[in-house]
Each structure stands twice: as C-alpha cells, then as structure tokens.
Amino acid sequence: MIKLAHAPKKGLHGKISVPGDKSISHRALMFGAIATGVTEIENFLTSDDVLHTMAIFQALGVSIEQTGTHVRVVGKGITNFTAPKTALDMGNSGTSTRLLMGLLSRQPFDMSIIGDSSLSKRPMRRVLTPLEQMGAKINLSTEGTLPGIIQANNQLNGMVYEMPVASAQVKSAILLAGMQAEGETTIIEKLPSRDHTERMLQQFGGKISTKNGMITISKQGVLKGQHVLVPSDISSAAFFIVAGLITPNSEITIEKVGINPTRDGVLKLLKRMGAEIAIAKIPTSGEPLADITVRTQALHGIHITAADIPSAVDELPIIALAATQAVGDTIITGAEELRVKETDRIATVVSELSKLGASIEARPDGMIIHGQTPLATSQDSTVLESFGDHRIAMMNAVAALITKGDVTLVGEEAMRVSYPKFLSDLAKVMQ
Ligand code: S3P
C-alpha cells in the first residue's frame, strides 16, 4: 500500500522514456527461440509478463542471456526444444498463454501450462477451438481455462478461420500454429488487430500475405536470427500522454514510442477529444517510432465504437480517466472485451473512478462518462485498489495527480506486469 502523489502546481515537465513494448518483447523472444542463429534484442521490456515467456523458453532448452534491456537469444529452431522438467508458468500473462498454445502445439512431448489466479479465470477456448480444428491436442479445464496440458502432437493442418472476436492473441496463436501446418491457413479478421506477429515473422525471413482483412500463411522454412529494436510501449506512454493533457500547466515529451497504426488508437481518440498531440516521426527500418509531445489541454466527450476498440483496447482505462476531465459525455460501446482482461476493466474502472467523484456508468459493452467532474476524495482520503491489474494501478496513480485529498493505492505491485518503474518515472516529470 502506498500514498499516491499529487501533481505539483507548476505541472508535469520534461522528457521521459517508457520501457519497451510488451507485445513486441514477447514476440522477439518467441521468434528468436524458433529461429536459427543469434537474435539480439534491444530496449527489451524486463517486466513480469515477459520474464515468464523468457523462463519458459529457457525451460525448453533455449539459451537466453539478459543484461539490462539487452537480450541475446541463441535460437534452436522450432523442432529442437527439449521437454521441460516442470509446468510452464504463464504468470499473469494472457499473451504468453495464447501465443504459446499455438507455437507449442506441434511438439513431441506433453507440457503442463499454469498461471496465476487472474489468468486462470481468463477465456482460453477462443484459442483452443481454432487450434483443435487444426489438429492440436490441448486439454483445459471444463470452463476452458488454465491449468492445462499441451499434448505431444506431430500433425497440424491449415484451415480457413473466421475470427469471432477481434483479438491479436487469437490471430497470433493461429499464425504460429499455421507456420507449422500442412497446407495454407487463412484468417479472416473481424476488425484489424495489432500486427506485430506478421511484421516480426517477415523480419525473420518468413512469408505471410495480408489482403482485404485476410491473412494467409503456409509452412515456413528456416527463420534466421535478427537484431530487433523494441519501440517504447505506446500502452505505457498512454499514461504519460493523458497525465500531460489533464494536469494543469504541463508539457511532456515521451521518446521513441511505437506508433504502429494497429496500436495508435489512443492518439486518434484523444485527438478526436480535442487534444493537440505533436508526433515527431523517427526514421527506422522496423516498427514505426515517434517522439510524442503533449501539453495541458481542454478536451470534449466523444462516442467510441467497436471499430475504435482493437487499436486502443489496453488504453481504454486511461482514456476513461481523460473523459472524466472532458466537457460532455463520452460513450464507449463495442468494448465487451474489456470484461475479460486482467480484471473486468469495465467494473474496475467504474468502481475506482467513482470513488473519486467521477460520474461514470457501466454498460454491458462499455461505459458512459459524464464530464467534466473535478476529482476529489469523499472524506479527507480515499483508498483505491488495483485488483492485481497493472493498468488499473497506473490509471489510479494518474488520477491521484489531479485529485483533491489524499489517495492511497492498494496493490501497486501489479505494475510489475508491464512497467515496474512507473511510479519513479512519474516522479521524474514532477520535479
Ligand atoms: C496483445 C493483444 C491484446 C492486448 C494484450 C496484448 C498481444 O489482447 O489486450 O495486452 O500482444 O497480442 P487481445 O488479443 O485479447 O485483444
């Protein structure tokens, strides 16, 4: 439990570098492990979720050395893993679980998969169903959750699969199985989701085609180790972007942030809310990067609909906080996926922001935020909770910046999942 800081009267100022992208760090380890030769990863995220993926590949016999944010993976090729001696522990990480269910679905040995209590409640049938259709043999609980067993299997077949949910994790699991399957695998996406798997496969020398919302992959030849520069995570940057916009007298720059168009929804939505965001693009051969500068600004409410959700799905909690400071109503619809994240983020956002006086209503598929409400504790002080969810913990810390009264946070350790040093980085822009 910690006491959260208020923003200084002179506002938030300075330049900040947030850690590497979580989605891309997971994938860099995965492709590095299944390639041949050495993969060097720069600006790697050393957070709990990604470290679980790293430990899993080490348990499968892959040599991985980490020195700070630099990681060296000596690839084994996808057919040379060794049987792990213990269960593969996914921790809190949905990305590890779902992507590895696909990637490890054609191995000559059984693997037990386990996760923490939050992960063990999250739906895995969305991955199991298509993988079983391809020939994977995976047992989960009757509820379709962890723990489970990925059984030994030597045959996967391609298929055409129409995605019932917009999910990069489901898409990636199918692609990672499809690259080991006989025949073609085609995925028809409901809405475009983050394309880091497709981009990284190509960087490692693989072949994949994307046309009119259809992604096609065949069995891949040998992938070659690469040098991967991980952009700073736009999902982490989003907390600073919103903090800069809603804290009086502020101006901050977040450096070298990944602005992949399948991930930059937070920038588009905040611009629709009236924010001027300066995006200075940095030339690069990999994932697109930019320095992002924001200053305090008046915002107005908007309607956020299903088509907006995939590229901003992890940023909706912090966008909801921004909406409490916008004039007028912000209506979020088509966001039922929020209910199956690390927590039910419709419930947890509404419960925590309401404690600070926000006028916010939960809907089955989203929320309505009536702005503009000054945030204040009900008595002299309020206790907020993370419920073990890293993004709810960080949303609470940003809310406290502009809250009148003392705010305490229970469960701040959840930030270790994606941004272990968030509070000390936040303190840097308060000096
Ligand atoms: C992720 C995809 C998204 C996102 C998660 C990371 C990924 O999940 O919420 O934090 O790395 O592919 P869904 O695919 O379930 O939308």
UniProtKB/TrEMBL annotation:
GO terms for cellular component: cytoplasm. One of its GO terms (molecular function) is 3-phosphoshikimate 1-carboxyvinyltransferase activity. Keywords: Amino-acid biosynthesis, Aromatic amino acid biosynthesis, Cytoplasm, Transferase. GO terms for biological process: amino acid biosynthetic process; aromatic amino acid family biosynthetic process; chorismate biosynthetic process. InterPro entries: Enolpyruvate_Tfrase_dom, Enolpyruvate_Tfrase_sf, EPSP_synthase, EPSP_synthase_CS, RNA3'P_cycl/enolpyr_Trfase_a/b. PROSITE patterns: EPSP_SYNTHASE_1, EPSP_SYNTHASE_2. The active site is at D314 (proton acceptor). The keyword Phosphoprotein does not apply. It is found in: Cytoplasm. Residues 9-426 form the Enolpyruvate transferase domain. Pfam families: EPSP_synthase. Pathway: Metabolic intermediate biosynthesis; chorismate biosynthesis; chorismate from D-erythrose 4-phosphate and phosphoenolpyruvate: step 6/7. Its EC number is 2.5.1.19. 3-phosphoshikimate binds at K22, S23, R27, S167, Q169, D314, K341. It is an enzyme of class 2 (transferase). It catalyses: 3-phosphoshikimate + phosphoenolpyruvate = 5-O-(1-carboxyvinyl)-3-phosphoshikimate + phosphate. Phosphoenolpyruvate binds at K22, G94, R122, Q169, R345, R391. Belongs to the EPSP synthase family. Catalyzes the transfer of the enolpyruvyl moiety of phosphoenolpyruvate (PEP) to the 5-hydroxyl of shikimate-3-phosphate (S3P) to produce enolpyruvyl shikimate-3-phosphate and inorganic phosphate. Monomer. This is 3-phosphoshikimate 1-carboxyvinyltransferase. The lineage of its organism: Bacteria, Bacillati, Bacillota, Bacilli, Lactobacillales. The gene is aroA.
